[in-house]
Amino acid sequence: MSIDTDTARKVAHLARIKVEEDELPALAGEFNAILGFIEQLQEVDVEGVEPMTSVTPQRLKRRDDVVTDGDQQDKVLANAPDAREGFFAVPKVVE
Questions:
Q1: For residue 25, what are the domain limits?
Q2: Is the CB of residue 11 less than 8 Å from the CB of residue 31?
Q3: Which of 44, 6, 43 is nearest to 24 (CA)?
Q4: Domain assignment of residue 23, yes or no
Q5: Is residue 38 included in any domain, yes or no?
Q6: Does any domain span residue 64?
Q7: Total domains present in the chain
Q8: CA nearest 36: which of 84, 75, 13, 3?
Q9: Which NCBIfam families has this protein been placed in (predicted)?
């Protein structure tokens, strides 16, 4: 697949990027280079290769999925300009 200047103009418009008319051929060339890299990646045989989350094999730390209130109400409200009865107090804006 090859990107021409009209397609580059359309992509720039869709991305809301202002590109001058004389810069469109260079942008089309960059798009074509990116597509060339993607085509190279398609040629790689990845059959049997496990997906990785990191370059070093490690297990992510896990914790129990338990719903709590956080038990930090005092810490959360400590910097509030106005707190009453354990809640943030805000000025009334609707009559």
A1: 5-42
A2: yes
A3: 6
A4: yes
A5: yes
A6: no
A7: 1
A8: 3
A9: gatC
Q: What is the DSSP string of 19-84?
A: --GGGHHHHHHHHHHHHHHHHHHHTS--TTPPP-SSSS--PPP---------S-HHHHHTT-SSEE
13-70 pLDDT, tens digit per residue, is 999 999 999 999 999 999 999 999 999 999 999 899 888 877 887 777 888 888 887 8
Sign of CA dihedral 20, 26, 29, 33: negative
pTM of the full predicted structure?
A: 0.51
Please name the residues in contact with 69: beta carbons below 8 A apart, sequence gap of 6 or more.
Answer: none
Please report whether residue 51 resides in a domain.
no
Count of residues making up the chain = 95
